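G., before I forget:
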Amino acid sequence: MNIAVMGYGTVGSGVVEIINKRGTKIVGKSSPCELSVKYILDLRDFPGDPNAGKFTKDFNKILNDESIKVVVETMGGVNPAFDFTSSALKAGKHVVTSNKELVAEKGLELLSIAKENNVNFLFEASVGGGIPIIRPLSVCLAANEVKSINGILNGTTNFILTKMISDNMSFEAALKIAQENGYAEKDPTADVEGHDACRKICILAALGFGNHVYPKNVHCEGITKIMLEDVAYASSYDSVIKLIGTAEKLEDGKLYIIVSPAVVKLSSQLSSVNDVFNAVLVDGDEVGEVVFYGKGAGKLPTASAVVADVIDCANHQDTRRLIGWENENPDIIADYKTIPNQYYIRLMVEDYTAVLPKLKNLFGNIHLLARSGAGTHEIAFITEKFTETDIRNKLSTLKGSDLKSLIRVANC
Amino acid sequence: MNIAVMGYGTVGSGVVEIINKRGTKIVGKSSPCELSVKYILDLRDFPGDPNAGKFTKDFNKILNDESIKVVVETMGGVNPAFDFTSSALKAGKHVVTSNKELVAEKGLELLSIAKENNVNFLFEASVGGGIPIIRPLSVCLAANEVKSINGILNGTTNFILTKMISDNMSFEAALKIAQENGYAEKDPTADVEGHDACRKICILAALGFGNHVYPKNVHCEGITKIMLEDVAYASSYDSVIKLIGTAEKLEDGKLYIIVSPAVVKLSSQLSSVNDVFNAVLVDGDEVGEVVFYGKGAGKLPTASAVVADVIDCANHQDTRRLIGWENENPDIIADYKTIPNQYYIRLMVEDYTAVLPKLKNLFGNIHLLARSGAGTHEIAFITEKFTETDIRNKLSTLKGSDLKSLIRVANC
């Protein structure tokens, strides 16, 4: 079976590499058809590339070639990926993508176009790189009502936080090492500000809870403000700070969805996920907690998930996998500031002994934290459950205090 | 869509409970058809059961009812489960099972009958209870050559070992608590001798490496001989003892497959899997290590995996999922005794100081272990890589020593 790959970057070139290596062999295990890359669409030139004869800059060549049954979209970004993908689907071609931005922004529309044209739009590689998560969540856990999804969804930030926790390295120093190792881009904004993780939790929430969630409607905080002081205090609480994407069905039916740093207890399965690894913890009402763990990025891991989707299309060419969700219901998304949660708070204060009774008065039970080297003007503690709005209101009554950190405690 | 459930034990009654609760609702998300349990086959009577009208003792009632499209087999054992399952498949009905013994012994045959009759034989629940593992391994990781599979595949033994490790409890005492909590059967043989884990690693090996492996051809050791002394020595080596099922492709193309206790380093993802939890670690050549974790047993977790397979059948009634493997090739299974591996050895000796130079002479580098309370007649150490045959030959030359424990060190 002929396929076309659109976008010859990291993932796209990995897809071509894997299919060239074993296109026949793997699919041959269970199906008579073979995989072969016929076109590679990219506007750039790749002189000396062994796939020289396959490059094209003209999308219509792919669109109009009836021998192309599956199109792989690994261009990234919404445009022109969306136009190309929707045109391919309308032409009766299956499309497989690793592009989380495309799925998070346009997944609802593309799944509906796929349905109308009786073809598949598959995106296993869009979350967790090579870790199987999309298909397990949508098929294997289908008998469950999902209660919550919590994930470490971005390898770059997890690498940086691991360096901060294990090597006592500042955010800036850890980011530099991540960039030197190729784990972070020159412009690391999408990773360190949480936007990448946000797209992924939106995709998982749509699969788990049945409504599209647009990233712009999700509160998203990155890790740039995490200080080593916070890491040390978390450690004294038998916890680590991780960037966690959370989507949780509340008792009133609303959805609590957020990406932010969180204090994660060492007893959580997510606390030991280090370096560039990702993990997704799904809590289902029948199955309880299940965790999916592995490398969440990288050329070949991500490409292997794309190729698995291509193989699935090849093996079931005339079948559409039933996957989809409803339009976004903005009313369903709860205001994160109104959801009671435990919080970690670090303040700079003028007079520790004077402020302590006031804090107890404001918050009731607080769990005071300690770190070596803390001056007498710093105070850190864990609260009982309060809304963020409540906490900010209470703190605003404390004269002479300066809020340095306010981090939620994860419920997983 | 009407289904029949054969076997109203723990898992079967869970399947009926979940479908009664939400048969319409979940499937309705993506498909117009509803699930409804029409028959429950069981030779026992269940007076007062709310499903009273559905019980039958006559399999032919199910077989001859054309409205039954999917049959759930949760009887356990090979007979009569095999006869009923093959008859149902031949009658054009999809069959979903949680019965690992049936899949491990008769999977090859049943998949072939399913193929001939263009129906599905699905068994997600046969390994890891509710943890998605069968479909992720066969579909999501299809672009990988699997290098190895290592798993904690039995919750009962993992519970017992956790009690031994965390609470310093003997095997016998921990087994008693497992029985009191309903985690172990009155006759715990199948669990504690490793037979249950063996069936599961055989199923995973077939999926991962493409050939059926019969449990009788796999070396299988249980945990009954593990002593607290071994637990203590492992701890001094930053390790825990776990019952590990391993299937690994060797460089010569042969398959190293074994179920036995193993010394697992704390740096392994499997070391922190405690209590009744299961985890499967798959190492793929493209994706690297991925881990699937969750409750590996229990009524509703396992039933939820069965119902997910039923939903998959309902959603794709006219499609056969391409899943299968080749006949067993007995030549492919390596003799485990000839595979070099690191081993943990504990000996009782007459004279510690006299035996030590002899051990170094026999084994070269050894890593000596210590535990508090060990007498001067006990010696424990980790070897470099040797075959078990080599090790036993070497030890047989040591006069006045008594081999108490010989446990492989896990490679995961």
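The radius of gyration of chain B is 23 Å. Chain B has a mean pLDDT of 94.

More on Monday.
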